Amino acid sequence: MHDVHHLERTSGRPAVALVSSTFSSQAIHQAEALGLSQPERHIVLAEHPISDASVQELGAKAELLYADLRRQLTTNVPCSEARRRRLRAAEPSALCAAGA
Known about the structure:
Elements: H1 2-11, E1 17-20, H2 24-34, E2 43-46, H3 55-74, H4 81-87, H5 94-97
Parallel strand pairs: 1-2
């Protein structure tokens, strides 16, 4: 989220973070702490887990991300309530809340 914040601030271009679904609430918390308006617009969720996926599984996950990624980067449509709920489904971890 720090990279997204920095890129938008320095270039004025829209940016999004690809975030594993398990870490969505932590990403929201970080975006809010950084002062990003509409934090949900800066996050595209990848289905967890990622690190142990095969090349084929990663390709399939990437295909699922494309439409969401393109929409978030090219439109100013406000996030739906369903998207907000999905991204905010869990409380941030204690480490995230402490600023780690």
